């Protein structure tokens, strides 16, 4: 039950793989993207993730002409999508910075040309956003890369997850339990789906992609066996943009990684033993020896 991304093996009892999703929280600014990469590296995350679209393909037709209020003025939703996309030169700059900080980077391609774009840049994995789980053409293009596929399962039924896995296969698959509410309320987390997915798809490692406020649910996911945790990050939750409110600020991400590592230590191996620290209390308190 393992997959590899770059030099890291995920699953099989190894430490949880922490993905800091930058997504579109860079607001189209490479300097902001680099600062967020630094946030992820400083917190001890393993990877950063972006989103890549060909706006003319990935923007739903009924949304294209909708007016959008942005920091750059009112524009159509399609023009907004164009405004926040990074070109190849900017992605190379981002890639170099992530590499210098010791982080893997990859993205969620939202259309088939974006898969080719990312492949040209040499990514080691691809993420399928929950919204794309029914896009069979995209899934086939990702399968054909032979790279690890991280498949999020928000806004999806079990039948839709089954159909997606039928396309991409299970050899290089990391499945992520998710609920696509931004921000997500605790009653929608349904963390018991983590063992359900693990049992339904034997041999497929299962992680958690969260959009909640706070840290508790993500930490609980690790306690339930999630082998990877993905959370959106931001410099400031009050920044303009749709995902900032459901994101972790720098201190929050650092605390999340810290708490995940503590929980991993605390889980132990399930073998009952008497620890050295118990010997003195035993000598003091146990009246009847074994």
TrEMBL record:
A single GO BP: carbohydrate biosynthetic process
Organism, as annotated: Microbacterium terrae
Enzyme class label: transferase
InterPro entries: Aldolase_TIM, PseI-like, PseI/NeuA/B-like_N
Protein known as: N,N'-diacetyllegionaminic acid synthase
Superkingdom in the source lineage: Bacteria
EC number(s) recorded for this UniProt protein: 2.5.1.101
Keyword Transferase set for record: yes
Domain PseI/NeuA/B-like: 36-272
Keyword Metal-binding on entry: no
Alphabetic keyword roster: Transferase
Gene that this sequence comes from: legI
A GO term for molecular function: N-acylneuraminate-9-phosphate synthase activity
UniProt xrefs under SUPFAM superfamilies: Aldolase
């Amino acid at each position: 039950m393992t997959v590899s991304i770059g030099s890291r093996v995920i699953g099989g009892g190894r430490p949880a793989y922490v993905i800091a999703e930058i997504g579109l929280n860079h607001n189209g600014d490479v300097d902001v993207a680099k600062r967020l990469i630094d946030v992820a590296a400083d917190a001890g995350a393993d990877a950063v993730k972006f989103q890549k679209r060909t706006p003319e393909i990935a923007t739903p037709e009924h949304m294209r002409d909708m007016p959008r209020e942005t920091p750059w003025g009112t524009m159509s939703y399609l023009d907004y999508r164009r405004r926040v996309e990074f070109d190849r030169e900017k992605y190379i700059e981002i890639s170099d910075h992530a590499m210098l900080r010791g982080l893997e980077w990859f993205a969620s391609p939202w259309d088939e040309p974006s898969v080719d774009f990312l492949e040209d840049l040499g990514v080691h994995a691809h993420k399928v956003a929950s919204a794309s789980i029914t896009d069979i053409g995209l899934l086939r293009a990702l399968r054909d890369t032979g790279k690890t596929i991280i498949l999020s399962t928000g806004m999806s039924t079990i039948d839709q997850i089954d159909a997606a896995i039928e396309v991409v296969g299970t050899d290089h698959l990391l499945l992520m339990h998710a609920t696509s509410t931004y921000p997500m309320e605790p009653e929608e987390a349904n963390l018991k789906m983590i063992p359900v997915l693990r049992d339904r798809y034997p041999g497929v490692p299962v992680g958690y992609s969260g959009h909640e406020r706070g840290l508790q649910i993500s930490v609980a996911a690790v306690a339930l066996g999630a082998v990877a945790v993905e959370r959106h990050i931001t410099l400031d939750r009050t920044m303009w943009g749709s995902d900032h409110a459901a994101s972790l600020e720098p201190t929050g991400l650092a605390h999340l990684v810290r708490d995940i590592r503590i929980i991993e230590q605390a889980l132990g191996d399930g073998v009952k033993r008497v620890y050295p620290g118990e010997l003195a209390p035993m000598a003091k308190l146990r009246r009847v020896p074994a």
